[in-house]
Amino acid sequence: MPAKGHRKPDATRKAPPIKLYTTVNERTAILTDAASRTMTATALVRAIVARHYGRTNPTLKARRDQAPLLRELTRIGNNLNQLVKQGHEGIVPVSPTRAQTVLDQLMGIFARL
Q1: DSSP assignments along the chain, one per residue
Q2: Given pLDDT bands bounded at 50, 70 and 90, which one contains residue 25?
Q3: pTM above 0.85, yes or no
Q4: CA–CA dist 93, 78 (Å, integer)
């Protein structure tokens, strides 16, 4: 237990809560989105506000319905990373133009997601 009279530094001390009035639809959207990310509504709103004001670059948890897609993208990224490493080591011959073409195609796919 801290010594008597100890106070947290201002940077870590929480301010009094802010009341936020929303419509029923807005509240439902916030609660649904937070639940799909396994976050509390407060944590979700705090992350969105922090991102908006540029103080931090918080990462929101992925939505549960997107988990299979994220797993597949992770697999593709790992395979791509291994191929790039082998290309740099000279194990797999890859021309720079072919590598750029494949990368552009992948970025186009990701942009559509």
Answers
A1: -PPTT----TTTSPPPP------HHHHHHHHHHHHHTT--HHHHHHHHHHHHTTS----PPPPGGGHHHHHHHHHHHHHHHHHHHHHHHTSS---HHHHHHHHHHHHHHHHH-
A2: very high
A3: no
A4: 19
**28, pLDDT greater than 90:** yes
Among residues 1, 69, 63, 72, the alpha carbon closest in space to that of 37 is found at 63
Q: Which residue has the tokens 């009035």?
A: 21
Digit-coded pLDDT (tens) for 87-100: 888 888 878 888 78
Say how far residue 4 (Cα) sits from the centre of its chain: 40
